[in-house]
Amino acid sequence: MSNLDIRDVGNYSEVEIIKRNKSAARGNSSILEIYLDAINWLLARKSDFDWLVCLSGQDYPTQPISKTEEFLAQTEYDGFIRYYDPLAEKSAWNEKSIQRFFNQYIQLPESAAWLLRKYSGKIEHYTPLIVKWRYSMIGLKTKTPFNRNFKCYRGWHWNTLSQACIKFLMNYLNEHPDILRYYKRTIGPEESLVQTVLVNSQQFNLCNDDKRYHDYPLELGGYARLLTVKDYPIVTNGNFHFARKFDAEIDSEILDLLDAQALNNSPLAPERIQKSNSCD
Fold first, then answer.
1. pLDDT mean over 68-82
2. Which of 3, 132, 142, 150 is 20 to 30 A from 13, alpha carbon to alpha carbon?
3. For residue range 6-41, what is the model confidence (pLDDT) as tens digits?
């Protein structure tokens, strides 16, 4: 755990800090709201941007930013975003996605989590309620906005989208406030709303790749594995613009190597260079 002093960040030129009074938490709509607030801030000021890059606080560049900018300036794609149809095939992962986005939830105080965990089996057995104790949420099966022409898609929150994609997204949500209201009652809506709107529009050439490296082993239950110097060859193989997550107290060498790579454009050893066939 580390603390970021925003006063230091504010000293850099061309850096704007958008303050939010409400707290953010994993699972509810707060992360999605922060993302949409940032977009509204950009559009309200008529900011001149070509791409909007959505980063986690744990993301770290794996190549010089100038190289990423060059890539985006030359690409034929309108966006880089992971997405898939959770109804396409049956799996434990997809079943969790269906529960998250095909039901409506309300959030209880965090103090209720232990109670929900203790009695979740009985609650779900004797009532129609769905219990998600990790998020202190209870939900119900309900009518969804999804159909054959408007499928639900899910993926990761982090993405790189062109201005055209961003403007379409916001125009769509303004014209369809019912979709935004629905998603705000789902679990982790930031991992589905953007994909669902953009993919269903069929207006954009989207690359199903967010250009991030991360590893989510099953044994960590939804948390990313900490990357170490052993991961350096793969995160810098040219396929990724960013990687997560790191901990300097566990392995600082990987961060030193990435700093040299990103800041000094240090050449990669030939054995570290691999060919990519993923939206390159």
1. 97
2. 3
3. 777 767 777 888 887 888 888 889 999 999 999 999
